[in-house]
Amino acid sequence: MNTELLSARVLSIQPSPSMAANALVVELRAQGRDIINFTIGEPDFDTPEHILQAASSAMHNGDTHYTSTSGTPALRQAIVRKLARDNDLHYGLDEVVAGSGGKHIIYHALAATLNAGDEVIVHAPYWVSYPDIARLNEATPVIIPGDESNGFKLTAEELERAITPRSKWVILNTPNNPSGAVYDRAELLALAAVLRRHPQLLVMSDEIYEHFVYEDARHLSIVNVAEDLKARTLIVNGASKGYAMTGWRLGFAAGPRVLIAAISKLISQTTTCPSSISQAAAVAAFAGDQTPIAEMREVYTQRRQRMLEQLSDIKGLRCLPPQGAFYIYANVSGLLGTVTPDGQRIESDTELVAYLLQEGNVATVSGDAYGMSPYLRLSFASSLEVIDEGCRRIAQACQQLR
Ligand code: PMP
Ligand code: GLU
């Protein structure tokens, strides 16, 4: 079969660059290469024991059937209570839906609302999947360029300028992947004032990194500061990051009843429901002991510090300390135009990534994937030993650039 039989929709998108970068590491390791992997954004921790126990009991007690499309009542109840406990946000059972990962929820939310030609406003640097999920649904992603000098944050003026009569969604992501930006109350209030002037706009608030914030940063949702926007905001979150459960594929959304019902209808025709076992596990995650989160945050805090220290010694790299998530988005403009030992000129962040992988045996993702160059994204969801060794390799490879 050739690609002519594929849909225009699928031909319009790329495989997820972070997944692709990780897949390349797996392939190179299978060939015997010793690669340090700073690509993928996933906790290296195992899922906490009490969550495993809940999944095991579910399996043995017959929780092995289809569930209701939007998630079991027990899971929706746990999500509702979690939102009240952690976020001071109050939703009913019919205002939340569980899906097979946050990505699945985002896909279904956009598929449930977008018509051809609609615009989805995304601020760079952005998580890789937003623009392609918009494209898959025949919408146009409208990218607002980012600005490192204001901490990579979307401003009210920039948002106002990007809104057109075709705008359907604006996607906010705090804490942000890849920049680590965390929006404070004043910044969210300023965005809310703009959104109030455009009542046709839906707001997606991706809060999947809420638990990982550093120093004096605090996670807030736009709905915390602008209760009136609750009627058209979809909060997206999940178990993947906070509870080290990426492989369980369990995400959720909270929002207006009509939208939640539309997402559920779509799920009933696509995946039916999330895995019953993962749902049982997620009940234990959201409703059970929360101390593993604090422990993981403590470990990430040390790793963030270590990676920042090590990278700050490398000439040509500049890092803004991330306020949240588990990535460093390093500015590499100081390395562009340099020449590798075999005479190749590094013209872009993508070429730098290739050089570091080839010569330094360390894998990163280029800023190009996140809509903002020249940067490298480095995940610090790895042990201190791996961070030390990876940074040592980057330093050594960079030293050889002339
Ligand atoms: N949003 C952001 C910003 C992410 O980084 C991720 C991680 N892939 C997701 C959503 C989706 O995560 P998952 O599908 O594992 O819930
Ligand atoms: N969110 C993770 C990352 O950005 C997982 C990969 C993906 O979903 O594309 O690396």
Annotate the secondary structure layout.
Blueprint: H1 8-11, H2 17-30, E1 36-37, H3 49-60, H4 73-87, E2 96-99, H5 102-111, E3 119-123, H6 129-136, E4 140-144, H7 156-162, E5 167-173, H8 185-196, E6 202-206, H9 222-225, E7 233-238, E8 251-254, H10 257-269, H11 276-287, H12 291-312, E9 318-319, E10 327-331, H13 349-360, E11 362-363, E12 365-366, E13 375-379, H14 384-399
Parallel strand pairs: 1-11, 3-4, 3-5, 5-6, 6-7
Antiparallel strand pairs: 2-8, 7-8, 9-10, 10-13, 12-13
Helix pairs in contact: 3-11, 4-11, 5-6, 5-10, 7-8, 12-14, 13-14
Bound molecules: 4'-deoxy-4'-aminopyridoxal-5'-phosphate and glutamic acid.
Structure overview:
With 402 residues, the protein is of the alpha/beta class. It is built from 14 helices and 13 strands. Helix 5 (102-111) runs parallel beside helix 6. The N and C termini lie far apart (47 Å). The model has no long low-confidence stretch (mean pLDDT 97). Bound molecules: 4'-deoxy-4'-aminopyridoxal-5'-phosphate and glutamic acid. Glutamic acid binds at residues 16, 18-19, 40-42, 103, 128-129, 177.
